[in-house]
Write a structure and sequence with these properties.
single chain, 309 residues, mainly beta, eight-stranded antiparallel beta barrel, five-stranded mixed beta sheet, 4 helices, 11% helix
C-alpha cells in the first residue's frame, strides 16, 4: 500500500511540473531562418527568429557530421536582427544546429547548414563573388558623397574588382533632340535625373589581370554592372550581368550600403593594395558591403585609391 501511494505521488508530481511549464512547449516550436544555406567552415552566419531576441541567452551547438559530437559555438546578439554564430573552423559537411532547452532539458534542432571548405567555393559558378567570412551590420544612415569612380577591390580576393564609371549625365532637350540651351556646346543637365545616381554603362566586374594567370577564364571577368548609388539614403543596388559567361549565365542582384571601418570587426581586411596587401598604404576609409540576393553572402569592397596614398 505504501509503495503504491509513493508511486502515485511521484507520477502526480511529474504531471504537475510538466503542466506548470508552458515555456517548454513554446521552446519546442522554435523555428529559425539562416542568412545563408552554405558557408565556409569558420565563418559567421546569422540566425533570425521571431522575436529577434528569442535565442539571445540560449546556448547553441553544431553537430559534427562525422562524429556526432555537439560543439558549442560562439555567438553574439544583434538587436532587432537575431544572433550571429561562428561556425567551427574544421567542421565540414551537413551540419545540424541545436539550441539547449534550459526548461525541458535536452537539445532542440533549429536549422541545418552546409559547412564547406574554401575550395568548394573556388571557381564555383553558383558563388562567383568572394565571400566575406564575418557579418557586417551597416548602421550609417547617410554618407557624404564621394567620387565613386574607381576600382573597388575585395580584400578576400584581391584579383576581384568592381569598376564603377561616373554617374550617368542626362541632358534636357527639345522634341527634335536639340539641346534646350541656345549654345549646343553647353547642354543643360537634368539635375533631377542626375541626382538619382544611376551608374554609367562603363561600369563592370572584372578580374585584375596582374593578379591572376587566367583572367579571361575567370567567372567574374568583364561582366557589365548597372544600378544606383544613393548617398542621401546610403543605399546601393547593383546588377551584375554574367549572361555572357556560359558557365554562369545569370544576372545577380546585390543590395547594400557604405560602411564605416569601425563596423568591420577584422580591420586587417582593409589594408590597401591590389593583388597583395600593401603595408605602405593607409587603412581604407571608403568601404561598401553588398549582399547577394541570390546566395545571401556578403561582399566587402574597398576603394583602391584614396587621398593620402
Amino acid at each position: 500500500m505504501l509503495r503504491n501511494l509513493l508511486l502515485y505521488i511521484s507520477l502526480f508530481t511529474i504531471l504537475l511540473l510538466s503542466s506548470c511549464n508552458p515555456k517548454c512547449d513554446t521552446s519546442l516550436g522554435v523555428t529559425a531562418q539562416l542568412s545563408i544555406t552554405e558557408a565556409i567552415a569558420g565563418m559567421e552566419i546569422m540566425i533570425q527568429t521571431q522575436p529577434a531576441d528569442l535565442l539571445r541567452n540560449e546556448i547553441i551547438y553544431a553537430v559534427e557530421p562525422n562524429t556526432g559530437a555537439e560543439v558549442r559555438v560562439q555567438k553574439r546578439f544583434v538587436r532587432d536582427r537575431g544572433v550571429i554564430v561562428k561556425m567551427p573552423e574544421n567542421m565540414t559537411g551537413d551540419v545540424e544546429l541545436l539550441v539547449e532547452d534550459p526548461d525541458c532539458g535536452g537539445l532542440i534542432p533549429i536549422a541545418n547548414l552546409g559547412s564547406r571548405s574554401a575550395d568548394y567555393f573556388s571557381d564555383n559558378p553558383n558563388f562567383v563573388t568572394p565571400i566575406l567570412p564575418e557579418i557586417v551590420i551597416p548602421s550609417l544612415p547617410v554618407i557624404d558623397p564621394i567620387d565613386i569612380t574607381n576600382a573597388w577591390i575585395s580584400p578576400q580576393d584581391r584579383s576581384y574588382c568592381l569598376w564603377f564609371g561616373d554617374f550617368q549625365k542626362h541632358f534636357l532637350s527639345n522634341p527634335d533632340g536639340s539641346p534646350i540651351d541656345e549654345d549646343p556646346s553647353t547642354p543643360k543637365i537634368d539635375t533631377t535625373f542626375f541626382d538619382s545616381k544611376f551608374l554609367d554603362e562603363k561600369s563592370f566586374e572584372f578580374a585584375i589581370g596582374a593578379c591572376t594567370e587566367n583572367q579571361d577564364e575567370s567567372l567574374f571577368h568583364n561582366n557589365p554592372v548597372s544600378g544606383v548609388v544613393d548617398f542621401e539614403n546610403n543605399y546601393i543596388q547593383i546588377f551584375i550581368d554574367r549572361t555572357g559567361n556560359p558557365r554562369v549565365g545569370t544576372v545577380e542582384e546585390y543590395i547594400g550600403s557604405f560602411v564605416d571601418p569601425s563596423e568591420v570587426l577584422n580591420s586587417g581586411f582593409m589594408v590597401g593594395g591590389a593583388c597583395i596587401e600593401n603595408p605602405n598604404l593607409n587603412q581604407r576609409q571608403n568601404l561598401m558591403v553588398l549582399t547577394s540576393q541570390l546566395t545571401g553572402h556578403q561582399l566587402l569592397l574597398f576603394k583602391a585609391v584614396q587621398e593620402g596614398d
